[in-house]
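Q&A FORM
Asked by: J.P.
Topic: structure of MFS transporter

PROVIDED:
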Amino acid sequence: MDRQKKNFLIIIFSNFLVAGSTTMIMPFLSLYIESLGNFSDEYVQRWAGLVFGVTFVAALFMSPIWGRIADKYGYKPILIINGFGIAISIFLMGTAESVPELFFIRLFMGVVTGFIPTSLAFVSSQTTKETAGKTLGTLQMGSVSGTLFGPVIGGLMADTFGFTYTFIITSVVIGIAALIVLVGLKEIKRTKSKNAHVYARKTIIQGILHHRLLFNVMIITALIQIGNFSIQPLLSLYVAQLTDSSQVALLAGITFSATGIGNILFARRWGRLGDQIGYEKVLTFLLILAFVFIIPQAFVGELWQLMVLRLLFGIAVGGMIPTTTALMRREAPIDIQGEVMGYNTSFRFLGNIIGPMFGGAVSGFIGIPAVFIVTGSLFLVSFLFLKYTMAKPEQDFEDVLLEEELKSN
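REPLIED BY: S.T.
REPLY: Here is the structure written out as tokens.
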């Protein structure tokens, strides 16, 4: 087996472990907050959004820094730091004695959050532009497979063993994934051209801002994440409203996993289709599809209806991350790819920050069903953003970078 294939298999397996373990705690995070005291529903919903979203505040600022470091020293050190850092943070979450303490642990976790995006960038950097969509779609299947089983296992463990032991087990598994990367991954160093241009950070930022496609896709990335994450912290509470069962955590986990099934079934297909007909065309279709499937979730009367709609929604959103990442791979020069993807990851984390707080605010004032309607409209807005960008003339990113560099001199 050649080194590149072995690296790919290690990344897929470690993604599976990390994604599965981190999503173990998602179905019961709001229930865990509820267990820390005698709180009102409004208090729990508000803090569920804050605790869920605060992790991404630090990650928002750290992603471009990690990306620039990766361009210079490689992705493997970043993966190791992120893996062990996440493991320690989740272990500490199980020791929290108050909601504010849990809040600050999640904030600390944000500094080292980014194992999955970094692994996407790692694989993208060693993949040809022509096959980036299919390869990244395959990689997406590894992380989504983890999210498929993680919520169910996490919900079952929470109901059986309690929250604290679930946090401990989660941290151990993520530590094992980091250890696998440390021992088994051998990064193939990218050979830089002797004439490779070194761009200042300011030039790269200005270049992104003036490149219509890159900047608009980054905005779309944030809007997609807002749409995805606005409901996630509230889903277990919504499930509780739809069932009289005592195993709410388990049923919430199954509902989470329905989205994962849709992801895993179609992620590779969407990526391969993007390689063939263009990532922009696939992304526009997926945005409309997501809009169509998220709105009816506000009007379900039975839990099985919600599960079916989450499955269909998962089919649509499953292709969005590999498609946008492959698009970044196509546009960004290899020597600054890590930093460019770092900024794209920052926009993803910006959506992760706004989404839970936005969803918590909407549900607190109007109710959880309204979150589906309000956030569903964001997919429609994203579609309009992309159609507007596609109607404009194409730009070469390196030409834009050189123009911005000349302006600054």
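FOLLOW-UP: The chain has one domain: 3-186+198-408.
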